[in-house]
């Protein structure tokens, strides 16, 4: 399913919503945080590096948008106890959660399987696939307390069509697609809507690492994709569920 790329954000569209974004300190995660805060949502910014999280937080405040919440957590090493603590914190402060955006990911390395670094394989699957599983499991009770909630998994074309040398990254994104579909069926009769989204190419650190020789000025910035994520959080789009989404190229 193709979703619009030209949604114009209105301040107040997401007033009263509490939405958690992983990898919120830079790239698409930061662009999404800014647009959600602009639409009036309280964003729980999860990231592993407190310094860059604080820098990103200041950026949201400087723009005059809704004050976000910082939540430092390294998704590679996080334990069930850490996720329980996060659940307890959100319960105490907000009682519910309206959105969970699984954005954080690492590229791993571009390498043939017979040479792929085994530790990096485990790290990539941990951050890109197992952490979203645990985070989802611990936050479903809070999403169930919302009258209209969303879970969005950032995927990739490498998660929909296998390609040589994408190794653990491609496998993790295929896993995310399967996880999203499984979860959407399990939550069919709830108020939680679950989808995966391939945002398309974006000029972020991940893209520059994968394509170092590319002229990044010709690649769209993450700020051109984040309004589509806000669009998916809108109450009027609660009928979008169980879909593999892509963003329209021209709109
Ligand atoms: N860029 C593209 O062209 C493209 C295309 C298709 C899909 N995507 C997908 O879009 C999403 C965002 O990608 P991006 O391009 O914005 O990537 P990015 O610029 O590399 O940002 C990745 C984010 O994930 C965070 N992260 C990595 N490991 C983490 C960990 N252990 N714990 C917590 N946070 C961690 C990073 O935090 P640190 O700053 O601490 O590293 C950073 O905030 C990803 O899911 C990616 O697969 C991207």
Q: What's the CATH H-level homologous superfamily?
A: NAD(P)-binding Rossmann-like Domain
The helix content, as a percent range, equals 25-40%
User: Could you tell me which ligands this complex binds, including any ions or cofactors?
Assistant: NADP nicotinamide-adenine-dinucleotide phosphate
Shape: globular
User: End-to-end distance, in Å?
Assistant: 14 Å
CATH topology-level fold name: Rossmann fold
Strand order of the largest sheet: 1-8-7-6-5-2-3-4
Total count of domains: 1
- What's the alpha carbon Rg, rounded to whole Å? 17 Å
Beta content comes to: 15-25%
Low-confidence stretches: none
Q: What structural category arises from helix and sheet content?
A: alpha/beta
CATH architecture: 3-Layer(aba) Sandwich
Helix and strand layout, with pairings?
Layout: E1 2-3, E2 18-22, H1 27-38, E3 42-47, H2 50-62, E4 69-72, H3 80-94, E5 99-102, H4 118-143, E6 149-154, H5 167-186, E7 192-198, H6 205-210, H7 226-233, E8 244-247
Parallel strand pairs: 1-8, 2-3, 2-5, 3-4, 5-6, 6-7, 7-8
Helix pairs in contact: 1-7, 3-4, 4-5
The structure holds NADP nicotinamide-adenine-dinucleotide phosphate.
NADP nicotinamide-adenine-dinucleotide phosphate (NAP) is lined by residues 22-23, 25-29, 47-49, 52, 74-76, 103-106, 127, 154, 156, 198-199, 201-202, 204-207, 222.
